[in-house]
User: Fold this.
Amino acid sequence: MASSIFTLSFFVSLIASTIRLATPILIPALGQIYTQRAGILNLGVEGTMLMGSIAAFSTAAATGSLWLGILAGILAGILFSLIFAWLTITVRANQVISGIGLNILASGLAAFIYRVIFGIRALPAQVESFKPINFGSLSQMPVLGPILFQHNWLVYFAFLIVPLSWFIMEKTTYGLKIKAVGENPRAADSKGISVAKIRYSAVLLGGAYAGLGGAFMTIAYLNQFTESVIGGRGYIAVSVVIFARFLPSRAALGALIFGFFTALQLRMQALGVSIPSQLLLALPYAATIVALIFASKNAAMPSAYTVPYSRMER
Amino acid sequence: MDNYAVEMLGITKIFNGVKANDAIDFRLRPGSIHGLLGENGAGKTTLMNILYGLYRQEEGIIKINGKQENIDSPTKAISLGIGMVHQHFMLARPLTVVENVMLGHKSRRGILLDTKETAEELKDLSDHYHMGIDPYTKIYQLSVGEQQRVEILTAIYMGAEILILDEPTAVLTPQETEEFFHTLREMRKDGKSIVLITHKLEEIAALVDEVTVLRDGKMIGTRRAEGITKEELTRMMVGRDVMFNFPPLAEMNLGVKLSIRDLTAVNDRGVPSLNGFSLDIHGGEIVGLAGVDGNGQNELCEVLTGLRKETGGSIFLDGEDVSGKTPRFYIDKKVSYIPEDRHTTGLAMNWNLKKNMILKAIGSKRFMKGGLMNEKLITQNWDTARDEYQIKAIDGDEKARALSGGNQQKLILARELNADPDVLIANQPTRGLDIGASEYVRQKLIESRNGGAAVLVVSADLEEIMQVSDRIAVIYGGRLMGILPRGADVYEIGSLMMGKRQEELAHE
Assistant:
């Protein structure tokens, strides 16, 4: 029996699926690298992704344009994280509470918007989602074809912005300002950097990425919206950033670990392995938590992590 | 003679209805070093934060090089050639020196960092002032003295002609201070104007051209530093005479009270921080423990009060081995503790003063009647303490948070000394206190010694160690470097603090 399961095609599809499933973790995680490095823990990523997913889905359904859907997803992410930024930076509310509160708001709001637009139906509303890019003969290659050349553009985009994110963080003035604001906001302030502006920009950038990650779920991975479409991926993305010690390349690794276990459990379910499906469903999350515990033990957090800044306080 | 680098005229700044600066005039001559002297809370830092654009004054004007300026942000101050080195360094620790510097200037390469060019220029500047700073080192790898040099370097690099230094020597050893003064004198030679905020009188004599004294937010006066005496300055600063020399007590010969033998312990991160520390303290003597912060002093105090488990070695109290006992045991044995951090270890900040007074006696029959805490007894206890220790408070029901630092420390003294200790462990007992309050605390330590207690005073402030100690012990790397008599040479202590053993010094 074992030999019939672990064939070459099983592994090829497992790896291809791993890459695809890593994408909706990697995109928001790359965004959260900016946010967290600036000293802000946005647990509201989960809700932000959900808002991105519903905005992208309904826009795509209404206009028939997936590209407008992507744009709507990003915009929704920015708008929703703007609330978070205002709460935590301007009002200086507790970041954990604000994030969780926004997640609750998003789950209600997204379900509401869906009902208003699509009503209650027997079959869920659907869109034509993004098709894999056709690389011609490359896509037809055995083994490498399915693994590397049969994905849609967002998957490639996610992995291409990994080195770009590193470059921005290490080689540009913006990256340096973000790090300084997260480490020692008072020092940044005394050097003439606006702590609030940099933190707003870092939260909104994180929101844009989260919105895009949400859009991926409804119009590039699936072709429909459900209230549980994000399924904790926002939280995983937040943790992957810590696992990655704020390095984009390690974030890619973290996302792939999650993607791998998700892909694995999907296949095990399909094969009818005699483990309760609930346990299988928990597998990627459990694996991520274990990886996190070991990897984040020595993570050096930004010194001003989750601490609001005010010039007048000493 | 009337052109000044800085003129601040009639500056008033109000915080929560209190005048932190009250119509202060301050004038800085170009190419001079100007001491700004005053107790904590006198308004020195506030005044300079106004000059640096961190605060806005309610009244008054500022002229830079004779021209009136509106300094509404640090950016503006920097553009006017003003640089400030704060008491708490404004450095991001995981970043390199050059990255920290680049935060404050516009990159020549647009949105990309100009790391290489900046690093080269920094290196040149560092060489010019003999600072020996490598631009590519990360801040956390530098000593405190080096970090301070980075701060000064940054300010100069950003074009500062007017340099404000907020209590710069608080963190330096005597040798580092000497080097630091040398650098400042070189900068003065280059025509820079320097403001030195301080409450150390020695620095005025050693370095400064002119001195301005503030007290309670008011300007007391500006003098030429030459020929001014310590007593004169103190009177201006405190408003009365202050005792600097505490008399040593005739040897009481009460025998060894506390004996520490080959003690080892690890710090919170599991790194060994006491590495075989031994020391005897007699009844009726104060042993001052000098050392640069972070050489095992805190761990030692915690082990000696049962707050931290030793990993080896032993502690004897009156000859009895008490290693590994709980804090309760030490309290019952009359070991009192003045912790380093008033806010986290010394007091329950959100509790009222009465309850803080009985923190160590909760459950004691002294404050109970019929099995319940008795408000009347607790209040009586507080009233007595308040009168005896002159704690300035409205009544015992306000939170400890509401008191000033000096009064919080008095509250701790009242609690710890009321227990009539046999052993007193005082860790940085005057840190953050002004001269008046420090004098009070030191007097109480002396009184405790005169009463026969064995007192260990841990302090990073060498002046304090020299003033109160009967013997001076020096710790470095978790080991005892040597014991010196009262009146020992400050440079000898400094050398031990930097890790030279007493025997090595003798051979030099």
Summary: Chain B has a mean pLDDT of 88. Chain B has two domains: 6-238, 257-507. Chain B is about 35% helix and 25% strand.
